[in-house]
Amino acid sequence: MIKLLIGTVVLILAGCAGVAPRQKMEQDLERVRQELARTPFLAEKWAFPLGERIERAWWVGTDLLVEASSPPGAPGSLLNLHCFNGKDGIISWTFGLSHALDSPPAGNRSFFYLLVEGELFLLRRESGALVSRVSLPFSPSSPAVAGDRHLWIGGWDKFLYTLDPENGKKEWRHLAKGDLTAPVFSGEGRVIFGAEDGCWQSLEADSGQTAWSEQLGGALRFAPVRDQDRLAVASDDMNVYLRHFPSGTPKAYFTLQSRPAAPPVLAGNQLLQATETRELQIFSLDQGPGPKARIPGCVGYLMTGKKFYYALGTGQEIIRIDPQTLQVVDTTRWHGLAPWNANPELGLLVAVSSAGTLLVAEER
Length: 364
Hints:
The protein has two helices and 32 strands. It is mainly beta. A hairpin with an 8-residue loop joins β24 and β25 (293-296). The longest helix has 16 residues, at 22-37. The chain is globular. The protein starts with 12 loop residues before the first helix and ends with a strand.
């Protein structure tokens, strides 16, 4: 297992040694910190000069998994998956990849699950050691979602497959009417998913027995989201549907001005939805189906902070929104540093430099 302390600028690992000169890495780290210093509402949680081209990054619980590529001629694998402790920036391990991941990774308390070229890789969460490599009897159509007792993956044959999380063997499968391209939601003994035919269903996680199903008017391309007893799903019929969890009893619906571009976000008594017209629409859960505010120039939502909402602008700027007035407070654009995503539960925002420095910031 390979561990590095925060901010240590060294040539790392066999797979990273010599990737970037020490001086360039130090200079890029300093430049990134200077850019952040111009942003009074964010503070550095940690920063790490990886020295590789960062391709993608995903939060899985409190861990940040980073897919990065080394330049030709570098020792080790040309494509690496690095696991960072999201709270302190320590690298737990690095796993060499033969190909890029097919979809975002999944994880539970014991394992990470990777889909690569249609195969399932099981890695130990703590060490990154390969436990098994499973040839699946179906072609995956959706990202994997992991619980401690089950692993779920949609297939292009329109079946939702439930696998044993210890070995990847099939437990049961459930036939949907449409393609399954969105990840499922799982919690409290239920697995809830939508298909591109517009039908979403709630199944008993252990048996696959149907608890409820509902036909909506458009394709369901994004996972359902839950906040306490509220469950929301965005449909291509340009509505977001709010249901009671776990009963599925209708509670409300909210009408969009265009198709959704991401899953909805439940924030207190408000619902936020990014749309394909690059707009963030904000609804009150207590007032009618129309939006209370429409924020133009947004391609996605980053996180709900302690004081503000944070959205991602079309030019990779951070848009800060007052949740009380629903007005834009300010926009911030960095030079050579792009915000990518965030962990709403930890209140951490991820930004990446073109030279391979990883920055994780928190609200002041």
